[in-house]
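Possible regression after last week's pipeline update?

I re-ran a chain I had predicted before the update to compare outputs. Posting the input and the new output here so someone can diff against the archived version. Not blocking, just want to make sure nothing changed silently.
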Amino acid sequence: MRNFQFLVFVLFFSLAVQAQSYKSSLTYQKYAYPVAVLQVPYDEDVVTDAVKEYMSTRGFKDARYKDFLVFRSVPLDAGSAEPSDAYFNIARKSHAEKDITIVSLLPVKKGQTLLPTTVEDSSFLRFAMTFLDSMRYHTLSYSIKQQILAQQKLVDKIKSKMLELKNDSGDLAKKIRSYEGDLQQNKKDQEKLTREISGMSTGDEAGLAKAHKKMDKLMDSQTDIEKKLRNYKAELEKNTENRTTEQSIFDTANGQLDALKKRLETLK
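New output (post-update):
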């Protein structure tokens, strides 16, 4: 089953890597703007951070304008002498497909405000598509790396809980052994005291009263020990169940971590 899931992941992300940007339109304040679009199979916030990091490593600082993430004076094409202001609109595809993000790039004439008359011509849109394609690998790999970091934290958290349960199991087993020893000694003491009482004279009322009082304490102690043993054994049984459950959760989470790492490898 896990191999099948991995094959599905590989196919899915191979298609994502191979996917090219395409021309589309973006409606903003009643105007339809031509944009270059790239579809990414990750959460909107992660993709936004990926775009910011990609641009930041190239020396571009982000700014906000309405629904856009803006980077000024960006050479969208290496052969272009005139840079553009890159307006990115990054949003999830739909409410039902919240893990799929649409990255729209609108090239605007450098230093101009966002108006239909200031949008670059179709040649700049082609440059925008090329630019999106150039950042596709970084966006995908960044997103997967963030998932790997989050998944690793989850795996480490589960491992920590498993270790805690294991330590608790050892402590409970130690307590059980100790109380079982106490119970065994208590029974020996009762047997010894019973023999002593049998050998005592019926006329030794004070001695008999003292012995019976001691026996009562031993029996009370036995009851207390047996109660604690039942509780500790129940806790140990529950601990064993929890350890089995956590092991299953760990195996699943660790498998998902391995799958993410393999996804990252497929991008290279």
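Follow-up from reviewer: compared with the archived run. Confidence is low (pLDDT under 50) at residues 1-17. Marking as no regression found.
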